[in-house]
Design a protein that fits this description.
Helix content is about 60%, strand content about 0%.
Length: about 725
Amino acid sequence: MLSKWSWIVLNLVVFVTTAPRKKTPVEDEAKAFFELTELDYEDACYNIANVQWSFIVSPSNKTLSSWEMQQCNYTEFTKMQKKEVINKIKNTKEQLDSSLQYKYDVIEKPGDTLLKNEDWKKFIQFAGVVELQRSISHVNKSHNYSREGVEYLLSHSGKLEDKQAAWNAWHRQFLPLVANYSNNLLLVAEAAKENDVEDIKNYWEMLSGHPDGYDKINSEWSRINNLHKKIVKFIGTNLARKYNITINDTLPAYLLGSLQGYEWTDISSDILPHSELIYDLKKNLWKKKYVGKSLYKTASSLGLMLLKQVPQAEFWDKSEFNQQCPSSLLNFCRDGTMRVSTCSKATISNFLTAYEDVGKVLFNQIAIENTPVLDIVNRYSGLEEGISTLLGILSVSPAWFKHTDLMNSTKDNEQQMIVSLMITALNVLPRLAYYYSADLWRLNAIQENITDPMDLITSWWKYRQEYEGVSSADMDNPTFMDDSHIVRNKPYLPKILGIMLSFQLYEYIMDSTEVRYNIDGKLMNGNVIKMIQHSGSREWQDLLNTFVDIDDISADPLSLYFSPLEEFIEENENLEYKSGAMADKELEELEKHILREINTPTTTPSIITRRITTKSYKTISNAKNMQSKVEKSLESKSSIYMEDKPQNFGPDLTTPVSLGKTSTPDILNSTENSTPKISTSKAVWAISAILIAIVVICIIAIFGRRRCRKTPKNRRYV
């Protein structure tokens, strides 16, 4: 038994070793320096984001020129910051805590911006030219297809020959630019040298925040690849029957539903025996008008359940919801501010993209508490990608489909599970294979010093065939030029790691890899939110270990998640193909009808205006004024703006919601520029609508005022 003095000594030792370490004057000075540096980085990033946003919404030579100018200013800025941090901190770096040392490393090695000025200028100009051509070009003069037109043709029913012709014509326009790309690709090696990294593999691993990341993927790839090959074979069998062609080991790239061909969800109805469920889903997306802002608001309700936040007011006010797809999401580096430019098209692909975008928006809003600007501009986070993909996985679960009333033709849980798993697989597995092949292809091209354009294209298709199971009758199409990530020399490594991580996070949150049908209570897990809050302070790998007990990236949860689908494919390899021609025709007619409604301007007949009495007008005016006061009061009490008009929701989204319930929030009525409104020529309907609106607005104004009075002043979330 320890003596009294022994206990005292032991407690003293424990206190000394566990008590918070008092910061030294050196650390205090360094912390102040880093805080100022981060503010400077925020300003520089914000300036670039502003001109880049102008280019996204209005691509032209003028907006492109402004973006290039800001990029040139930015490279000078990062070089200056590197010199300052070395002069100020280098000799005392070892005296700093791990968080400050991490910030030092990120500033000292910011990435590609350390390239020589002339190399950086050529690099940026080339990337801008390609992006402008992708944004505004048209192909096939006889049809005058825009990018949007080609994407529509590829994702809808049609003749094989038309799809192939449009796909070829789009990609062939980039052939003259391949020579410049081969020169720009070699700049990765130059950037590695300028950042004092020994080779390009280690350089991309440094930027991705995962040492030995490629070795980790290589060791895990066999399990992912086995499942991917089964999916490819299953798809090939059904596409061969649909188009009456022979498909051997690889899939024709122009039959996969999009130009880039690494996301295959829009062909899901062509490959499943339960295709009626897929058609139900596609039709309901249009019927409920889950497009543009309304779609993103639906996604934000799931984000609220998972992360206890919704996008800020500025996201809704400044984003563009009636532009083109694929969507573009841009980070403005201040206060978690982000914007999206997207289209008003109700497709499964856009549905998933909206949820994944919302995941990134919420991630950055939560992370802002730790000033993550250095991670945003100088590093690529696998953790952000993991949270984003996690929302995508949950968005196509049977539970969420039931909650949003998107799948309603069967009560067979097994069929719903297979459909959900197949959609997730078509979204995730082709991307993993594409990302992996794209990185391996580029690493090999740089190491082998491949500069001849045709050799580069030949090598590209060799890797796509081997890892993706994708090919083309014309193997000289440089499809990689349609990928801004590749053109900008960004590694796909963090996206690969993030997708694998998303299934580990799913397993952590759900305590199971089952596809859930009824999830009672909150999805939110406090440790996940704490982990996001601390991002930007250290490597994201360390955060996983600290907060959610994930010490390494593994493919095991992914394999386990898809095991029921794998069994289904093995048991149904020889199923008879069901033609969906009639359903495709019905879906396209519905799409055209809804698009006409969306694009029809709402008008109010003059006769109705004359029939509104002065008393009614005053009632409406007073009610609107009361409502406006309530909304402004609520907005001033919350830094997060959940919806434009709170009354448009059914259930209160601040309370736990069961994903198994079939009640769906009426989100559509709160949309603005992207919200479809159906006009009618019958005055009686319009008058009835106005009378109902008067009553509803009055009720909302009265009860809204009461709610406003009860809202605590320090309440952060609506």
